[in-house]
């Protein structure tokens, strides 16, 4: 079968098409899936640039997100039938095969029926970002109806679904974007107010929108500088959640505000083999499938590349300012 192999640590050109052996079912609870699309996420580029998470040597197949059709079922895999359309977040970190390939094998426990209303490309774009946004907003952030949440980079992959999930919860959503062109996009997703990143930051705009109180929950998807500036605009007794390393910080003001600071790394259950936590990830996909099929949650795929152009997809996402998601389509 065709697959994109990461043959070394480095720039996007270390990704190339190769013919490799098709994976086989080795456990009774596994399913084999003919992949139709694979999501491209920033973590894929970080693995390519920094190396895989495990001791296994290269080459490796990247790509955590996948969607496709079940083509073979293990003797004890009763959740699915042949022809079922599934989506999942599995592999791509250096141990199990990722989804930049024509076929994959995974335990049925980690797959979910994909929404009937989505294409394979749309479905493959979603698992990682949905699980990340849900975990940050609800499990770590404890977001409640009536609260104000500030979601950074609302036009991005995680941000654009986080806005919608927060609105479904009944929260007031403020989001930040990098350009005027993205304002209409995040408004169409349900954002109540939008603050532009300015040379002097975003704190003044958020303080005006919250009358100096700040947001009850702040969700950082950008990095250390944004996290640092967000401390002073998180409401007293609020929660500040990040998906990235905030770096070395002076937390004096955070302590004065009695903030809860949380981290959301949705890869942890896969990396640490925390199976019960991964079950929760599948529950999130099931809940979101219902929202999607009711028309309450949507995905925006801004760029689609054929599998053979994975290197171009990586170059595009690393260029920054991606709106929505990037996907590889697999013939």
Describe the structure in brief.
The chain is 30% helix and 26% strand.
CATH architecture tag of the largest domain: Alpha-Beta Complex
Number of alpha- plus pi-helical segments: 11
Distance between the termini: 12 Å
User: Regarding CATH, which class of the largest domain?
Assistant: Alpha Beta
Residue fraction in strands? 25-35%
Mean pLDDT: 97
Ranges with pLDDT <50 over ≥5 residues? none
Q: Tell me about the biggest sheet?
A: 7 strands, mixed
What letter string, H or E per element, gives the SSE order? EEEHEEEEHHEHEHEHEHEHEHHEHE
Global morphology: globular
Q: What structural class is derived from the secondary structure elements?
A: alpha/beta
